[in-house]
Amino acid sequence: MNQSKEKRSFTRGMSELHTWGGLVFGWLLFVIFFTGTLAVFEQELTHWMQPNVRISEVEPVQALASAEKKLRQLSPKADTWMIALPQQRHQDLEITWIKGKRAVEKHLNPQSGAIIKAPETEGGHFLAHFHFELHSGEGGLWLVTLASIVMLAALVSGIAIRRQVFKDFFRLHWRKNWLNVHTMTGVFTLPFVLLITYTGLTVTFLMLLPVVPQVLYGSSWKGPQYVAAKNFERPRANLPGELVPLTRLLPIAEAELGKGKISFIRISNPGDQQAVVTFFRTIDDTVVAISNRAVFDGVTGELLGSQTTWSKYVHIYRSLVGLHIARFGGYPIAWLYFAAGLISCIMIAAGLIFFTIKCRSRYARNSQMAQWMYRAIEGLNITAITGIIIACIAYLWANRLLPFDIKERADAEITAFFSVWLIMLFHAFLRPPLRAWIEQLRIAAGLCIGLPALNALTTNVGLFPAIARNDWMTASVDLTAASLGILLALTAWRISLKERNNETLLEQQSSLGSSSANFPIERTPLQ
Amino acid sequence: MNTTTLEVFKRLRELLAGTDKTTQTILRILAAVFGGYALTSSMLAALVLLLPWTKADALFFSVLFPPFFYTGALLWAFGASTAQRAWRNLLVVTFSCEFLALAAAWAR
User: Fold this and answer.
1) How many CA atoms lie within 13 A of A16 on its CB side?
2) Given an 8 Å threshold on Cβ–Cβ distance, is B19 in contact with A312?
3) Where do the domains of chain A lie?
4) Terminus-to-terminus CA distance in chain A, angstroms?
5) Which residues pair with A272 in a beta bridge?
6) A215–B40: do the CB atoms touch at under 8 Å?
7) How many A-B residue pairs are in contact by the CB < 8 A criterion?
8) ipTM score of the complex?
9) Where in chain B are the domains?
10) CB contact at 8 A, A428 and A458
11) Is the dihedral angle over the CA atoms A472, A47, A116, A261 positive or is it negative?
12) Are the CB atoms for A325 and A290 separated by under 8 Å?
């Protein structure tokens, strides 16, 4: 054996990594990036999915009074109470009480304190969760972590194998083929993808890698939050103690943390002598995604302490988290992340499609096995790209179409998401690839454009009433869905034009009497 | 050692020394995933034990590195000229860090 033949160059290694790593994880990465992009508007989606929770703004103190009254009335003996006060992008008042392992959550009208009978839904939270756990716990978390590492490696190897892309990009050498779409969007979103993947990985690694806690803390490890924050919690005394009115503590907490900035309150052991009340500050106006807090004795109302400064490294780490979750800059930043996320999705999709085209031209006349593999890749491309888009929009449709009072409605919506995705998988394998692309793009476009209509027909928060009431959180979900629908419809139209061109080409060729083996495979439909 | 163990050992050696493309790629993938995990873990352990800081600072500082370590291992596994060399490089660094970590833990 010739030894030098076995050794290979660095560039070839990088190319192999980029191609195969990109292919195998590209499907997963598209799914992660797409659901993550939608999760930027997690709160808006949740708001949209709870059409009967529409509340006018109230003073925090009034909301707190309503919540307190309801909690004292419903669950005086709970272990923990939690109150999420109305915020700008989260208008309802949520109360939760925990007794043993059971947690109950209710939505209240902050003005009257009445319980709102909201249909159960996971809302945008499902998408946010799905994008890092794939709905399957720690296994999903590992899979997403590996995919993200491959993403980082693919960025490095992508630059290594095509160094001239930067030159092409800035000299505007833009050509209209899938490789160029892939590299140009790749260069354009490089900083964003690096940022989002790196920050995401720092979060998942802290959750997954046991080595540092093991080495530093051994069995006394309880979680990073116990290391970062001062602990004011106390064990239960099992002696009754009257809980101080929370509304009396609110002004003191606001003096500590900022007026109107309290977003969350936790009461441990209410009704016990050792009750502790913790006020958490919102993180919606800061990059450092960690809540400053003020802690009170629940019986005497005395301020036990507060934490508004954090160690340097906690500060850095939580800033990275803040940069990932994109809550710090309000809507301008949210839209920036959304747009960058969508372009990154296009980058991943274009890479996958380019691979398939290359694969098709190289293996099309090869063995049966190669053709089968190519068919499977094409099917998975369709399922991962258009399939996930359809599944996400179907999730919103399910929210409106499922009967209001069926049991476990939130789970039913998630089931709808996965069932639709599965149907799209079958569809992608049963139809000829190009037809499947066009049909799925059309379904996606139809569902997106139809969403405002569906919303208007099934609820009273349709597009025009919502705008009239200045409810832009609802209206923008409708409008964004419709605009994405138009983009999808245009793409479907473009591809169907190609299909028609191809058919005429084929006809011309067969009328000229040339055999199909001479058919120029490089000019395949999606190119 | 009896002959069966020797036989198994020999087979395994042949397999690990494979130079055909499939074996090489499989060995590289294994090196990237498991070698990467081992490398990241040992480098982190060495890092936090060598830093003369408080535990909390070391913990939140160390969080910044695993993406670099793991991605580096992946690139290294595919960039090396042969899969065997990739494994050797990864293992050498892993064990060196392991050794450093143990020394640091012992010195504490």
Assistant:
1) 21
2) no
3) 9-48+128-200+329-523, 60-118, 218-324
4) 40
5) A240
6) no
7) 106
8) 0.89
9) 20-107
10) no
11) negative
12) no
Tokens linked to A260: 């109107």
Instruction: Enter the tokens of residue A446.
Output: 């139809």
Secondary structure, 3-state, A268-283: ECCCECCCEEEEEECC
Q: Report DSSP letters for A59-91, one per residue.
A: -HHHHHHHHHHHHHHH-TT-SEEEEE--BTTB-
**Amino acid (one-letter) located at A371:** Q
Radius of gyration from C-alpha coordinates of chain A: 27
Identify the CA nearest to B53 among candidates A206, A308, A307, A311: A311
Residue identified by tokens 């700008």 is: A88
CA distance A395 to A67: 31
Whether A428 contacts A379, CB under 8 Å: yes
State whether residue A406 is helix, strand or coil: coil
Query: Can you spell out the DSSP letters for A459-518?
Result: SS--HHHHHHTT-HHHHHHHHHHHHHHHHHHHHHHHHHHHHHHHHHHHHHHHHTT--GGG
A66 near A112, Cβ under 8 Å? yes
**Structure tokens belonging to residue A237:** 């005394």
How would you write the pLDDT of chain A (527 residues) with one tens digit per residue?
A: 344 444 567 888 888 889 888 988 999 999 999 999 999 999 999 999 988 888 778 888 899 999 999 999 888 888 999 999 988 888 888 899 998 888 888 888 888 888 888 778 888 999 999 999 998 888 999 999 999 999 999 998 888 887 766 776 666 666 667 888 898 888 899 999 999 999 999 999 988 888 888 888 888 888 888 888 888 888 888 888 888 999 999 999 999 898 889 999 999 999 888 999 999 999 988 899 999 999 999 899 999 999 988 989 999 999 999 999 999 988 999 999 999 999 999 999 999 998 888 877 776 666 777 788 888 899 999 999 999 999 999 999 999 999 888 888 899 999 999 999 999 999 999 998 889 999 999 999 999 999 999 999 998 888 998 998 888 999 999 999 999 999 999 999 998 888 788 777 767 766 654 443 333 333 444 43
Out of A206, A224, A311, the one facing B57 most closely (by C-beta) is A311
Cα–Cα dist B59/A124, whole Å? 32
CB–CB contact B63 A205 (8 Å): yes
Scanning B24-83 for CB atoms below 8 A from A yields: 25, 33, 36, 40-42, 44-45, 48-49, 55-64, 66-67, 70-71, 74-75, 78-82
Q: Which helix (H) or strand (E) holds A364?
A: none
Residue with tokens 């066009």: A438
Structure tokens at B16: 């690990």
C-alpha Rg value of chain B to the nearest Å: 17
Cα–Cα distance for residue pair A154/A485, rounded to 1 Å = 30
Residue B50 burial by Cβ neighbours in a 10 Å radius (0-12, 13-18, 19+): middle
- B85 by Cβ neighbours in 10 Å (0-12 / 13-18 / 19+) ranks as middle
CB contact under 8 A, B80 and A205: no
Strand duo A115-116 + A262-268: pairing: unpaired
- Least Cα distance to A297 among A250, A237, A251, A234 occurs for A234
How do beta strands A276-281 and A293-297 pair? Answer: antiparallel
CA angle A472, A443, A46 (to 5 degrees): 30
For residue A249, give both structure tokens.
């503590």
Rounded distance between C-alpha atoms, residue A451 and residue A464, angstroms: 14
